[in-house]
């Protein structure tokens, strides 16, 4: 089994990375492969709302000038996914938001290719805005019928300079418990695949409120 973690911070080894590494350590100790993809340091364009991915259904975004399509295909075979972002103006960092809008739209338009993966959101923040950013990340996961792993608190760590989150005792514990709970869910999901199939996907009903 494998978990892919998306690091949405421009700083490759900042507090977002440190938080993910804490979760990853627990996963590795449980025998689950773990890989971090650094999205935040790339130049990623936002979604153009062209609808081409839904029309072509080839699991690709029409924008090919960045690695988003490559990242989608790395996530597809993984058993678990972690979305992690620093806090910018009480929200998701811009590059990460661009990636999420495109990747999750492609996934949804192509039969729900992220559906039923075990998932979690992780946030690193200096002072405030952690809860709103955590909530925003979870919007992508819950919309996509993913299985949420939880911890003893919201998955938010605090620190300013790289490495300061290691001084956040409660935050570190939250990441550790998240890793253990995620490993447990992954193993439970794997153990019951043959005897308890996942619910079949449904054709989405689109309702508009303009008459």
The major pleated sheet works out as: 7 strands, mixed
CATH superfamily annotation? Flavodoxin domain
- Percent of residues in β-strands: 15-25%
Q: How many helices in DSSP terms?
A: 6
Q: List SSEs in N-to-C order.
A: EHEHHEEHEHEEH
Structural class: alpha/beta
Level of helix content? 25-40%
CATH architecture: 3-Layer(aba) Sandwich
What are the low-pLDDT stretches, counting only 5+ consecutive residues below 50? none
**Which topology does CATH recognise?**
Rossmann fold
Report mean pLDDT, rounded to a whole number: 97
Query: So what's the CATH class?
Result: Alpha Beta
Shape assignment: globular
- Give the total of beta strands: 7
Rounded Rg: 17 Å
Summarize the topology:
Layout: E1 2-7, H1 15-29, E2 33-38, H2 52-56, H3 68-75, E3 80-88, E4 91-92, H4 94-109, E5 118-125, H5 130-143, E6 147-148, E7 156-158, H6 169-191
Parallel strand pairs: 1-2, 1-3, 3-5, 5-6, 5-7
Antiparallel strand pairs: 3-4
Helix pairs in contact: 1-6, 3-4
Could you explain how this protein is built, in words?
With 211 residues, this protein is of the alpha/beta class. The protein has one domain: 3-Layer(aba) Sandwich (Rossmann fold), CATH 3.40.50.360. The protein contains 6 helices and 7 strands; from the N terminus they run βαβααββαβαββα. It has helices spanning 15-29, 52-56, 68-75, 94-109, 130-143, 169-191; strands at residues 2-7, 33-38, 80-88, 91-92, 118-125, 147-148, 156-158. Helix 3 crosses helix 4 (94-109). The model has no long low-confidence stretch (mean pLDDT 97).
């Amino acid at each position: 089994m494998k978990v892919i973690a998306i690091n949405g911070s421009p700083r490759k080894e900042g507090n977002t990375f440190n938080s993910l590494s804490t979760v990853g350590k627990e996963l590795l100790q449980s025998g689950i492969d773990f890989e971090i993809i650094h999205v935040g340091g790339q130049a990623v364009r936002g979604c153009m709302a062209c609808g081409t991915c839904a029309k072509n259904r080839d699991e690709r975004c029409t924008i090919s000038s960045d690695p988003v399509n490559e990242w989608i295909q790395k996530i597809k075979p993984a058993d678990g996914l972690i979305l992690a972002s620093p806090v910018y103006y009480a929200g998701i960092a811009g590059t990460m938001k661009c990636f999420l809008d495109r990747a999750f739209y492609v996934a949804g338009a192509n039969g729900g290719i992220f559906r039923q993966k075990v998932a979690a959101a992780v946030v690193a923040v200096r002072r405030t805005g952690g809860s709103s950013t955590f909530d925003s990340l979870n919007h992508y996961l819950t919309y996509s019928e993913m299985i949420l792993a939880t911890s003893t608190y919201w998955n938010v760590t605090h620190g300013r300079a790289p490495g300061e989150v290691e001084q956040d005792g409660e935050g570190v514990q939250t990441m550790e418990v998240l890793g253990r709970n995620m490993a447990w869910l992954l193993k439970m999901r794997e153990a019951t695949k043959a005897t308890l199939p996942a619910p079949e996907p449904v054709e989405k009903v689109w309702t508009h409120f303009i008459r």
